Amino acid sequence: MATELTRRVTASCAIAVVSLGLAATASAAPGAAAHQRVSTVKISLGRVLSNPSGRVLYLFEKDGKNVSHCGHVCSEYWPKLMSTGTPVAGAHVSASHLGRTKAGQVTYYGHPLYSYVGDTKPKQDNGQGSTAFGAKWYVVGTNGHKIDPSGGA
Known about the structure:
There is one protein chain. It contains two helices and nine strands, in the order αβββαββββββ. The termini are far apart. It has helices at 2-28, 72-77, and strands at 37-43, 46-50, 58-60, 88-89, 98-100, 106-108, 111-112, 131-132, 135-139. It is an alpha+beta fold. 29% of the residues are buried.
């Protein structure tokens, strides 16, 4: 009886350890490249930052410098641009202003960068100027500033 109980407890612990390991691996940095490239595309608002696939990148006004305030649910709609190593600058991007948060999210001039699930193909900016999760979202210009055609600061 004690041996059977020991086997069951050992098996349960092994399953729990494997499950935790898989969960940690899955949440570490989904879609993270070793050295994520930040590129640019030209859209109606001008030249803006993009991921390597040409998807426009956004900043979230609620974020702090090198700190994301976009939690789990938020990041389902606004995926974080992640990199496990030093990000790489494409043409028109200042390599010296690229960085990463402690969690590995790519930053530009201290702004954590995001894509938007509503942009279904390159060069779309459907998230531009929207308000979600407590603040506004803007595409990012090559100078690191939000692009706000309304002139709002």
